[in-house]
Amino acid sequence: MDKFFNACVEALGKEKEVYDEERTIRAFNRFLEAFSFAVIEINWEKYPDHKVISGPKDLKGLKLNDCFIFWNEGRLPAVKTTFSQAIKCRQKIAELSPFAWIVGANYDWVLEFHSQGKVRFTFAD
After folding, report:
1. 38: domain range?
2. Distance, CA of 80 to chain centre
3. Would you place residue 125 in the very low, low, confident or very high pLDDT band (cuts 50, 70, 90)?
4. C-alpha angle 63/85/36, rounded to 5°?
5. Which 3-state string (H, E, C) describes the chain?
6. Domain count, the chain
7. What is the pTM for the complete model shown?
8. 61-120 tens-digit pLDDT
9. What are the residues facing 68 on neighbouring strands?
10. How far apart are the first and last CA of the chain?
11. What residues form DSSP beta bridges with 114?
């Protein structure tokens, strides 16, 4: 596995589960079904109430728990962790791929990291 991925997973601490290829595919496909996509990023026009996030303070007050981390880099497995751990490691997560997503374990919200530094958040329809 990639040393940068391993460093990211290590930084997540003990509260994580790295999925195998089959579980990654199933989880990622559920993510694709839950949100509307435009090529490789979320189609933000379909989510007019989305928020552009400038830092963790923009997410304060949201009761977000377990989540998945997905990358558009196909060789990287999905990781299940807590939202607080994912946010602590957001830089490492975002650095691994041009697009990365932190998605609620119930596929009810998403935080998208774009390679150009833009971060957006929305709830599912």
Report:
1. 3-123
2. 10
3. confident
4. 60
5. CCHHHHHHHHHCCCCEEECCHHHHHHHHHHHHHHCCEECCEECHHHCCCCEECCCHHHHCCCCCCEEEEEECCCCCCCEEEEHHHHHHCHHHHHHCCCEEEEEECCCCEEEEEECCCCEEEEECC
6. 1
7. 0.93
8. 787 889 999 998 778 999 999 999 999 999 899 988 889 999 999 999 999 998 778 899
9. 80, 103
10. 35
11. 99
Cα 20 → chain centroid: 17
Q: Which two tokens stand for residue 94?
A: 């975002």
Residue type, 49: D
pLDDT digits (tens, 9 = 90+) for 37-59: 988 899 999 999 999 998 878 88
Amino acid, res. 19: Y
CA-CA-CA-CA torsion sign (108, 18, 116, 64): positive
Residue holding tokens 């379909």?
46
Instruction: State how far the Cα of 59 lies from the Cα of 105, in Å rounded to an integer.
Output: 17
